[in-house]
Amino acid sequence: xxxxxxxxxxxxxxxxxxxxxxxxxxxxxxxxxxxxxxxxxxxxxxxxxxxxxxxxxxxxxxxxxxxxxxxxxxxxxxxxxxxxxxxxxxxxxxxxxxxxxxxxxxxxxxxxxxxxxxxxxxxxxxxxxxxxxxxxxxxxxxxxxxxxxxxxxxxxxxxxxxxxxxxxxxxxxxxxxxxxxxxxxxxxxxxxxxxxxxxxxxxxxxxxxxxxxxxxxxxxxxxxxxxxxxxxxxxxxxxxxxxxxxxxxxxxxxxxxxxxxxxxxxxxxxxxxxxxxxxxxxxxxxxxxxxxxxxxxxxxxxxxxxxxxxxxxxxxxxxxxxxxxxxxxxxxxxxxxxxxxxxxxxxxxxxxxxxxxxxxxxxxxxxxxxxxxxxxxxxxxxxxxxxxxxxxxx
Length: 394
Prior knowledge:
Blueprint: H1 2-14, H2 17-31, H3 35-44, H4 66-78, H5 84-100, H6 108-116, H7 119-125, H8 127-131, E1 152-153, E2 166-173, E3 185-191, E4 197-202, H9 207-220, E5 227-230, H10 239-248, E6 251-254, H11 264-278, H12 286-306, E7 312-318, E8 321-326, H13 332-338, H14 344-356, H15 359-381
Parallel strand pairs: 1-6, 2-5, 5-6
Antiparallel strand pairs: 2-3, 3-4, 7-8
Helix pairs in contact: 1-2, 1-3, 2-3, 4-6, 5-7, 12-15
Protein name: Integrase catalytic region
GO molecular function: nucleic acid binding
Pfam families: rve (PF00665)
């Protein structure tokens, strides 16, 4: 039958239109094929049909090749695995910092591609890496009631959220799941206007340690402290801090009872900064306390100078649906430099500090101390806890 089809096909393709009709009639009588199928065979029976495997199929050439992917992953890791929008916003500065300090080598073509890459493409390229990387806190505060009537509840009339200087504070406990005994806490302080955040460890949540940490963190701020906002825990609602704010002329406000969202900025940083950096382990030794101090010293610089954040600039409610519009991801450092409330001398000093920072070195120091904390936990789990000195409360 194959030879018959080929013979008729050769005659059919050489024939004129009228002759083709006669050949087709003859072919259908001989083969008993349907007329349309017979016509299909006669038109292409002698043509060799090319087949290709999926790997041989031609598609659009990849714009971002493996070289770009490797460099993108390295930058993403150094930046602590941010989303595409946040990474795109600082890509230019991060590349310049890494290249200037000798931690990244790029060809002109690769650099151009990295600088032009969109946020959505970053997320798409890194989706497989993110999947490879696929813990709750508990509250340790008790309400302080004696001074509540003296400390005002925060209102939008007293606080200017556009001016650096009004901060929210909170404590994060490092109990490891057991609240018995003494263990370290982290005092987290966040400026509402700029997102500037600083963290310091304290040996426990005694009022004296909390106040000492507040004074210590205040000295590191690149703006004048104007007000402090806390929850209703007794570590904050006490005479030590109340008297300090009165003497220093600081506005001291507190959240409404059972309204956790009143302290939303610092609550969010409790996870994104503190828990993300040091996890949920129990830190109750002097060595761990000292490691936390060293770690936070680098972490504060790393987050404030190189980690962008976004702020809501518009919220629209349509029925049950709320649409939020955010500003461009911007680092706290950039927000401070753009603020008209910060004097030029402070900005000049901050700029010199920023230009001297090595983002890769900061990340390496943070990772080094994180590994030390993990190694101590491993040692503790093997019964080596007796080798560690308890916290010194002097």
